Amino acid sequence: MKSPIARLVPWIVAAGFAISSAWLLVEKTALRRKNEDLRTERDLAEVAYRMAQNQLAERTLLAERLITDFGRRLARHEDLRRLQVSALAGPSPGSGDTRAIAVWDPELGAGLLAIENLPAGAPEYQIWITEHANGPPQSGGAFRPDDDGAAVVAIQTARPMKKITGIAVSAAPTNGAAGADGPFVLSGRFSSRAQ
Length: 195
What we know:
Strand order of the largest sheet: 1-2-3-6
Radius of gyration: 30 Å
Low-confidence stretches: none
Strand content: 25-35%
Largest sheet: 4 strands, antiparallel
Shape: rod-shaped
Oligomer: single chain
CATH architecture of the largest domain: Sandwich
CATH topology of the largest domain: Immunoglobulin-like
Number of strands: 8
Number of domains: 2
Number of helices: 1
Helix content: 25-40%
């Protein structure tokens, strides 16, 4: 006759196998879910990367179009007096050797900003355009300078702006907030003669 403990051994072994199987199933499900989450994150990162590439390509294409258009007009000796030009300066006279110039075409409602020696310090910079002396600034786009602090950027606002008075560049906010929050690293005024 078997002892009561000997009769329970097969049941204990079976229970151990059942618990191990259940634990392995739970782990497998958790790993599968984690794998799906990682795939989703990768897919979202790829979409964000493609969107960023498309935006960069659009801005590059716009800048090339504007440069080509300005060049054609110069070649035809078209009246360029309507173009507004502004030299941008830092907030204080000793702001270093940063040089920037902006050209705005009121007819196109777009322009170009060329910068040299922009100091490092922000991963991205934001362009701001003002329509009136006391009006709120409108975004003219964001850009990243190259390692030497140089950039040629197409300026384009969300809505057409024909008569503009000022331009500024600020460090883009890291929290993604809209608005000219940060300190301006460069600013300039457009003359009103072309308006």
